[in-house]
Structure formats: structure tokens, C-alpha cells
Specification:
Blueprint: E1 2-3, E2 22-37, E3 40-44, H1 49-54, H2 58-69, E4 79-84, H3 114-122, E5 128-133, H4 166-182, E6 189-191, H5 209-225, E7 229-235, H6 238-249, H7 252-257, E8 258-264, E9 280-285, H8 305-317, E10 323-328, E11 330-331, E12 339-341, E13 346-348, H9 350-359, E14 367-373, E15 378-384, E16 390-396, E17 401-409, E18 416-423, E19 430-431, E20 435-437, E21 441-446, E22 450-458, E23 474-475, E24 485-494, E25 497-505, E26 510-515, E27 521-526, E28 529-533, E29 538-542, E30 549-555, E31 565-570
Parallel strand pairs: 1-2, 2-17, 3-4, 3-10, 4-5, 5-6, 6-7, 7-8, 8-9, 9-10, 11-12
Antiparallel strand pairs: 2-14, 12-13, 14-15, 15-16, 16-22, 17-21, 18-19, 18-20, 18-22, 23-24, 24-25, 25-30, 26-29, 26-31, 27-30, 28-29
Helix pairs in contact: 4-5, 5-6, 8-9
Length: 571
Amino acid sequence: MTVVAATAVSTGVTGVGQPGAWAASSASINGATSYQSIDGFGFSSAFGRAGLIRSMSESNQQQVLDLLYSPTTGAGSSILRLGISSTSSSIQPTNPGGPNAAPRYVWNGDDDSQVWLAKKVQGYGVSRFYADAWSAPGYMKTNGAENNGGTLCGLAGASCASGDWRRAYANYLVQYAKYYGQEGIGINEIGFTNEPNYTTSYSSMRFTPAQAAEFAKVLGPVADAAGFKTVCCDAVGWDGQRPYSAAILADGEAARWVSTHTGHSYGSDPTSPLASGGRHTWMSEWAPSSTAWNTNWDNGGATDGIAVAQKIHTALTGGNVNAYIYWYGISSAGTAAFIQGDGTNYSVSKRLWAMAAYSRYIRPGATRIGANTSDGNLRLSAYRNTDGSVIVVALNAASTATSVSYALQNTGVTTGTATPYLTNTSSSMTAQAPVGVGGGTFTATVPARSLVTYRITGDSTPPSSSPPASPSSSASSSPPAGSCTATTVPGTVFGDRYNTTVNVSGASNWIVTVTLTAPQRVSTTWSADVTFSGGGYVMTARPNGSGDSFGFTTMFNGNSTARPSVSCSVG
């Protein structure tokens, strides 16, 4: 398998009501060329945005949650970025008496409705939770305030009369994640800074690149001992993140602890990969600047759906990002969120469907594969999921429809079906007539100024990167009549994670309990409804209509030998 840098790709979809003339193009999709793995797609619930959904009627709550999280009718988001408050709603709003005093943590079990939202999205199979702090509480900082910048006391060049707060801040962040564990929500990653190169009138705290590397060495071992990963640095601009990643890589101890490098897209897009020493990279925040609500797909504005689709494509194919996290899924005004809500009613922007074209069918654990075309108006990328399906996403920037002939090479699909999902002014991930795949090829038309997602399934054996059958598979003991069997199938190991597939037989209303060995943690799941308990180390899976198999990705967290155990019962 060849691993190379980013390349262009192309795709097509059956056109509806298109102009009489169209161009013809060809594209090759090559499973032998591998780029980055995909951790997922998501958005942030910081600054009270979870409460906007919670305050709605139950009917509207369900509709909005389905729009954001349903993997069949909505965007299928798979990552939730939580905001760690530094205001009066934080877990330690008052100074305990100094950095060495006994902490005075408080936990209300709500966290500005973020706990409520996290529990809701677990029902959609979401298990990747990234907790990020915009600032430390003001009493830990050089300016004595949780906003307007300032720096963490104790860092190089940031001495304070109150003392060195570095370890206290690390403990504070880890305690926040532990509180979520008590609620049955397993936080995976902790970020200690947001936009450290920017000062604002709201929650903010400055770090230089050297200071960020310094603090990563403080938080890293504390977080790791509790089973959490450390993330850095969510800088303003992809280019703004580069000096932070460079400082971390230049310090072997800091590089050891930072598992994921994160940057925003404000001011500079991910047109090329971050140098991260082989660690995963996330585009962890972006939305176009806006003060007006815009629901349009293609009206010539930066907040149009088609413009957002182009940004996502660039990040995936230029920046080789492993995850794409938009700013807000829902907001009240002026933020270019996917959905605008006022606590009662809501309105949906085409930006949501631009994300859904990628996030619904490119599932966690997928791998971006080769996709090439000579057509300069086609923005194409392709992905292979762990279940063997191949996803091709085609954005046609031209003002005419384009007929595309696709050659599927080394994908494991020679005969099968390509189902197009169309997004444009009149359609929102709307299923089109399936297209037959024969001899490893199919032809379809991408309408003008449209985005099409093809979900391609084959009649032949799934590709080798899907979790294979294995003689080392483990099964729950043979069940008596009226019970069920759960069998684990070890899958791909990639970096600090590995995949597992669970096959269930004997009952359709099964309940599978998956038990992990600490400090391993599940990062993503698919094809089942899951909940967590036992501090995040016990996962309960139930059918979600996807069949009698499901899967999940587990982070080693320093333990690369243990594997999960499973048991099955009838619900």
C-alpha cells in the first residue's frame, strides 16, 4: 500500500433537471493509495449552545438532534467539542487559597447543559468527546481575570505573587474530565488552550509556543495517568498552529504527551498538512464570519453551503486532517452555525448539508484513498470505511453538469451499487436512483454547482483494510436457548488505536456489554446505539437498525496488549 501526499479526486451523481448540455470527465478511485485515517466530524457546544437545544420542546429537540447527529437522515456528527468553563460556572470558581491548597471543586452534573447534550448524542453512537479550555480561572493567571488574555502563572516569563499554578491547572482539567466519567461520558481528549495567539474580551489566555510545550509536559503525565489524551493548541489559523506544533516536536518530552495537533482555519486554511511527527491533526474550529443568518446553498457569499463544502474538501485533501470540527452546530445569531435557534423555533442552513455530505457516510475509522481527475472543476475525494463501503464525494464548481466515468481500482468493489446523495439549492443529501457498478466502473452525472456523495457497496469480499475474520476471534460462551452470542473480530491497528468488530447471533434484541481494561478507552463507534458506564470503561451496545454487527475504535492509552471482553444478553 502506497502512502502519499494529498491529491485531487472526482465523482458524479445522477442529475435531475439539468441543462441540456454537459461535460464528460473521468476519475480513478484507487484503494492502493492511502492517506489519513478519519477520526470524525463535529462541532462545539461551548458558551451555552447546548442549552439552546435543551430549552426547545421535546419535538423540536428531537428534530434538531436528528439533523445534527442521525447517521441516516442528518449529518451523523461523531465528535462533540465541549467547552471547559473558566467563568462562575467552572468546577472551581473561587480561589481555594493558593496553588498548593486543597482544591474546592464543585460539580453540578449539568455543565451548562453540556452533560445533557453528551448523553443525548451517545444515543446516536457518539463516543468521541474533546474537552477544551479557553482559559484557566482568573486567579490562576497573570492578569487576574479569566478573559482579556493573561498567562498561566508559573510558566516561563509569567511569575505571580500567588505562586505557580501549573500543576493545579493540570489537576483542574483532569478533574473536569473525571466528573464526566462519573456521568457515564468518557472524555477522550483534553485541550488546555484555545487560540493561545489571540486576546479577546471573552474567555482567553495566552501561551507562546514555548510555553505551550512547557505546559504539555505538566498536563501530559497527569492526564495520561487518568486515561486521557492531551491535545494542543487550537491556534488561530492553520499557519498560526505551525509554530506551536514545531515547538512541541522540538521538545521530545512535550511531543511524547501531545497525541493530537489542533488548529483553526481563521485567516489561513489547511492547504497543506501540519508537521506533527506522525500524530493526528484536527481542524478543530472554523465558521465564516457573519452577522446575518443565511440559509442559501449558492448565492455568491462566504456563508453559502457550497463555500463551506469547499472549505471542508480543502482541509481533508490539502491539510490531510483526521477530523473536521465546525464552530457551532446551533447558535442564536450571527455565528454562521448550521442551525439558528431561539429556544423555541429553529431554521436550518445549507451549511449543515455541506457538512453532512462528508460526515454522514465517512465514518470514524475510515481511510482516505486515492481519487484523481483531470477536470479542474471537480473537487473530489474518496474514503474506505471499516465495513468495506467506499465513499466518493464530488463537488462540481462548474455552471454545467458533468458526466463522470469512475474506475474503482483496488477497492474490493467490482460489481455492486453506487447510491448518490445530492445536495444543492433544491436538495439536501437527497437519495437519487442507485447506479450499478460493473467491471469496477460506473458512470453518473454531477449537476452544476452541486455536491454529491456516493456510497458504494460491492457484491464481492470487502477490502483487506476492513476488520478481517481471525482465528483469534473471541466469543462469549455458547448461549442457552433464548440468549445470544457476541464474537469479537480483531481489526486494523493504526497508530495509538485499534478497531474491533462484534458479530452477534441468536437474537435480534441483543444487548452487548463491552468491558475495557484501563486506561484504554473507546474513541468512536458505529452501527449500534451505545452508552457508557463504569467511568467510561464499560460500553453497552444495542441494535440501531444497522444489523447484527457493530464496531468501535479503542485508544491504547499506553496499554497496547489488552483487548476488550464481551458478553451478550437478550433485551
